[in-house]
Sequence to fold (201 residues):
Amino acid sequence: MKTRAGLTVDRIIQAAAALADEVGFEAVTLSALARSFGVKDASLYSHVKNIQDVRTRVALLAAEEMGAELAAAIAGRSAEDALAAFADAYRDFALRYPGRYAATQMRLDLDQIADAKGFILNIELTYAVLRAYDLEEPDLTDAVRFMRSTFHGFINIEAVGGFGHPRGIDASWRRTVAAVHSVLRQWPRTKAAQGRSQASR
Fold:
């Protein structure tokens, strides 16, 4: 359904995503969105419940966009090559779309994620890249968390200009990704994973 301002849910969420990239995800408000369309706040309530609904929808949209870029980046690649392509695409998306990236870090309820194709794709791609390192649970999940926190930490510091040393940031990024690869190759196996690996031989 459209209003006289031509509002639709898709238009509102696209505008919210663009605004998030401009002013920050947490700074997106219904009032700011209404102003961008030249309407009163009340006009938005025909399409979205509240600001939390808007942020959740932006998170779902951003996850789909990010997942598509990650999938394209690692297609046909494996092992270290796939890890590097995944890392570069992850960093590129986060720096180009800081508000959308922040939205992908939003904690959602399990029922919201269950039908969220973008979030599911991101999870599947992350695990697919790391399975090349022959990791089993719980080591696989631990390694996913290690990789994610490493990339996220680097990107967040870079985004706020926190790296003041004259050494090129790209060079440090390449070394960081190479270090992640090295750690994954030598990941310390838990006893549970070791037992399953030996039993399967």
